[in-house]
Amino acid sequence: MIINIPTDSDFSIHNIPFGIFSSASRGKRVGVAVGDHILDLVAVAELGVFDFDAKVLNQDTLNDFIALGKSTTAKVRTDIQAWLQSDQSPLAKNENLFVLQSEATMHLPVSIGDYTDFYSSIEHATNVGKMFRDPENALLPNWRHIPVGYHGRASSIIVSGHDIHRPKGQTMPKGADQPVFGPSQRLDFELETAFIIGKESVLGEHVTTDKAAEYIFGMVLFNDWSARDIQKWEYVPLGPFLGKNFASSISPWIVTMEALEPFRVAGPEQTPAVLPYLAHEGASNYDIALEVSLTPEQGEEEVICRSNFKYMYWSMYQQLAHHTVNGCNVKIGDMLGSGTISGKDEKSYGSMLEISWAGSKPIKLKDGTERSFINDHDTVTMRGYAERDGIRVGFGHVQTKVLAAHS
């Protein structure tokens, strides 16, 4: 191996995820995570090893590179895998090609034109329904028939490491007869993944479930921040607005679907049977272990949730098929969120809303303090990886600190 990769690294030889980085001596450009390092693809291109216009690598987003198509991007990935394992490769004895991740700054990997968030975990939807609607009939009548979603705000999606301020808005305090304005008192995370569109569709045409994989370039970790009290007051009749659009955080490295292929698994049985346009043959879920930790200011990091992407009731293929069935087109760089990923027990719930059961069951942290929702100066970190038969493919992390509301 040309460069040492720790055995427990998310960025193993089996991964080769793409991102945008810069350093003290290098402007924004395309790179690949390899262990604790970044392989600078602009520098690699200067060796004359690529058969495409290398200008797409010297950009501040991945959009132009992704637009080359999977036949090209997948070959870049497999070539890098081969080069990393050969002492005779173009990468050998060329230290200028690598940058330590600790010495680099990561940037938003794609220009996101549109963002859609789904609501596709049956465990999460059931928990929310029990809390706020009917414990006996928690799911709304449409939930098992369509992948429910809404259009979010792309402009406020930020990369890991960027702090956010507590949002402000209208809320209706319990027992009050008039709304009040001020900082949210129920700021929450949502444990999600998101997938990145890698191929444009045509307005008026439908991406079928059996073609959906062609349109998905890769995945990131996704923290869809939520102000539950603002959301509760505003969401009827048109759904999420200020309670959601203030910020969403993503991990900087896009893990390709080729890297995740060994971790395909069957999804949950769907009852009743879905309509034909949502039907799909073969395994369409992915076994990706996920966790959320919370770190109070000056405190110790503590894992508060462990879940798995394999629990999702509606798959990415079904989400994309439903999204486009009416003729809606998708473009390269568009991002589609999974919705909160909750498991089957309290330790796997993917939001504070569920973990604290709407604030009725606060959790106690190691420092003795309690949390029903996220406090100012708390840092929330999400991690994810897939591992099987000695192959590990991970996402790194998405980490965000919450600051006090702007005055």
Quickly list its features.
26 strands; Fumarylacetoacetate hydrolase, domain 2; 407 residues; five-stranded antiparallel beta sheet; globular; alpha+beta; SH3 type barrels; 14% helix
Distance between the termini: 53 Å
Task: Briefly note the structural class of the backbone.
Answer: alpha+beta
Provide the β-strand percentage band. Answer: 25-35%
Question: Which architecture of the largest domain would the CATH scheme give at its second level?
Answer: Alpha-Beta Complex
Our Rg estimate from Cα atoms comes to 21 Å
The CATH homologous superfamily of the largest domain is termed Fumarylacetoacetase-like, C-terminal domain
Number of spatially distinct domains: 2
User: Would you tell me which CATH topology of the largest domain applies?
Assistant: Fumarylacetoacetate hydrolase, domain 2
Counted beta strands: 26
Helix content: 10-25%
* Contiguous runs where pLDDT drops below 50 for at least 5 residues: none
The first-level CATH class of the largest domain is given as: Alpha Beta
Task: Write up this protein.
The chain is of the alpha+beta class. The protein has two domains: 18-107, Fumarylacetoacetase, N-terminal domain (SH3 type barrels); 115-403, Alpha-Beta Complex (Fumarylacetoacetate hydrolase, domain 2), CATH 3.90.850.10. The protein has eight helices and 26 strands. The chain has helices spanning 41-45, 63-66, 70-84, 122-132, 228-234, 257-260, 316-324, 352-355; strands at residues 18-23, 26-34, 37-40, 98-100, 104-107, 115-118, 149-151, 157-159, 164-165, 168-171, 180-183, 187-188, 191-197, 216-223, 226-227, 248-250, 255-256, 264-265, 285-286, 289-295, 302-308, 335-337, 363-364, 370-371, 379-388, 391-403. A hairpin with a 2-residue loop joins strand 25 and strand 26 (391-403). The mean pLDDT is 97.
